[in-house]
Write a structure and sequence with these properties.
10-stranded mixed sheet, Rossmann fold, disordered C terminus, alpha/beta
Amino acid sequence: MPSVKAKNAFARLRELEGAMNDYTNPHLDVIRSSSPSFNFIWGNGHGLPAGYSALFWGPPKGGKSLVSNSMIGQLHKDDPEAYAVKFNTEHRERAQLSPQQLTNWGIDIDRYLAFETNTPDHIYDYICKDIAEECANGLKLKLVVIDSINDIIGRRAMNDEKNSVMTQQRGDDALTNQEGLRRILSVQRKYNFGLIIVSQQRANQDPDEQARGNTTKAGVANATFHHCEYSVHIERNVLAAAKTDLLGNKFVNEDVSRIITSQERKTNDGEQTGHKIRCIMKDSSMGPKGRVAEFTVDYDHGIVNQHEEVFLLGVGRHVIEHPNPQMYAFGGKEWRGKQAIIEALKGDVDMQNAILRELRARDARGDYAKESVVSVSE
């Protein structure tokens, strides 16, 4: 047994700045989206733990900004006191978040502030100084989004006296973001806000990774990748099976037509109203890897058909019993056929929430004994 003298000495060490004395489970306080399957890929508490970071990456127009906006909106719905800040380095804020889109995502403009800037001092210094000061003054900041990190100008380029695009600044962007993220880390942990970093993707030049089928990777330096506890690949699903919901209904308004050229007179199939987005948890230091999400985006209403996601999650994790090809059961009720249970779920939000609570409970206790994979296009 340690002596009293040793115990007292160790107690004094606990009083030093930076000593870790709080081991509260970080997954008890998470930032979610409005998509059940996207929340599920995080494992544990089904969302981004407050105080930690996620990298969203993928092809252009794949849905990265859309998912970020969904998380801001859901945060405002979940926590009426929470604030969010975005640094839109692409200067597209007004175009991406019109009043209608703000409504679609549930974003409260009174608790949301965007900066259109791509200089590192107006991002990292703002977080370290101005935002940190307001957090100390009582601001309940829960989420910061940098969209995207690829458009932040490097420090050497900013200070280039010639101010010419012809001046090569090798490694400038990587070192600038490395230093910036290093500086904001302690602020992020101290004030417990989540950080989402959006990045484009680039070709993977590693032959070993290419052989494994990993032909693309996030367009960030290793320091940025290391800063983030989660790495999520986001892309539009262009497969034929993703063009309809689970009951075969197309995401098309057949009451209106597209402008048709003479060569397309026989292809008038209405105007597209939505599509599906596919997300993969590529890497994680705080939860499971490899989980896949798919959800439907309606251009006028945001993320829709959450009941279909709940159905697939419930069947895939055996929360919804599926004893034979025809029957489904949950909570003492039974349904014959996929259409019957999907329609029941659509009209019963309480049943959806009960299934999701059970899924979170199983993740929280690590109960994966009956795991299986269910195709999103089944």
